[in-house]
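Thread: "does anyone have the structure for this chain?"

Original post by V.I.:
We have the sequence but no experimental structure in hand. Need at least a predicted one for the grant figures.
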Amino acid sequence: MSSAFDFLTFGALLWLFGSKASLLRTGWFLESVASAILIVLVMRTRRVSVRSRPSSALLAATIGVLVVALALPWTPIGSAFGFEHLPATFAPLLAGIVALYFVSAELPKTLFYRRAEP
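Reply from O.Q.:
Generated one for you, tokens below.
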């Protein structure tokens, strides 16, 4: 499933933004980190994840990682990795891709646990 969303990100960056390699690398990095964080929050519980509050430590850690990842392209360290600033119009696209990823992870999990319970 992760690869399908990577391809969606690549396709959007390539066809909508005419991206070069550094922009593809940056967008892919941000989508990958955001979706990985999301999967941690989805898979930590059998319940619907939006109705189950994570622990304060987990929430702080995931928010911290997301903030660092989002800031990285604007730092010298990001430049060392070949990242570049993404256009502002990429943010809603990234949010949409991550939202689709959430649904594609949450729905099968919910159906699985619904069937697995006696």
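V.I.: this helps a lot. Residues 90-116 form the longest helix (27 residues).
O.Q.: and Helices lie at 2-17, 21-43, 56-71, 76-80, 90-116.
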